Amino acid sequence: MLKVGIVGLGRGMSHLGIFSQRDDTKVVAVCDIDGNRASKVKQDSGAEEAYTDYNKFLSHDMDIVFIATPLPYHVANCIAALKLDKHVLCEVPIANRIEECKLLIDAVEKSKGKFMFAENCNYWYFVQQWGKLVSEGKIGKPIYIEAEYIHDCRSIMWEANGNPTWRAGMPPIYYCTHSLGPVLSVINDRCVSVVGMNTGVNVSPELGAIDMEVGLFRTSKGALIKILCGFSNPRKQNFHYYSFYGSEGVIENVRGQMDKASHVLKTQKAWKTFPIHTIIPTPPMAPPQVDTAQPNIT
User: What is the pTM of this model?
Assistant: First the structure.
């Protein structure tokens, strides 16, 4: 049984639910700057203790720290937990600056704890299935991939006092993980170079939020990836879009309809199109459990 502590009880509540579904993890401590919220979550979840002080929270007896605080605090929160040799699962995105990434890498290398980036989109069912198709060579060599994440987040870019939140000032490409994570997982590759451009501030000048941003990535195996992110654009519904072009086939889903996915494979002289599995596995919602003495965080 792995003992889990969760800091940040906004976003962290969804993960509290996941840990609670499993019989190999138990949430033993919770932490939030809102003491009333922390106390209520403790009562509802059956956790041993609730904290408002992060350092005191880290002193609690636990194996895993799940970090769901706002982006500006991610790296400092991770490093503090890693110094105590805790295993760390941290929400996206991880950092605001390259210098922070270097500090985090150094902390991971010195710690006895394991670190994992909590990119949940990698575990969508169709992403897993596409990874199998690519690894089996069904679309040949991946040569060009497009992915998009468009989500109108303007309603959560304001604080109660009327000031913009960290989301408003974040360059959209910083939140490319929901797109880039699944792509790299499917093609089993890594990026070696990148160039980016943005549209500037046009939609919401009162927020100062960049409208949209594009990144072009080259991978170690030679594939080209285009990522588009936008979080202040008026859309009725947010969506994730993925399209993989290979030397012998194509895999893609429909913009705004992730459950409508298909692949086209080149077989001799004919192209065949047929649907792929839906996005959500039923059951389970949580990743399958692994029978191992080590924490299932690598």
Answer: 0.85
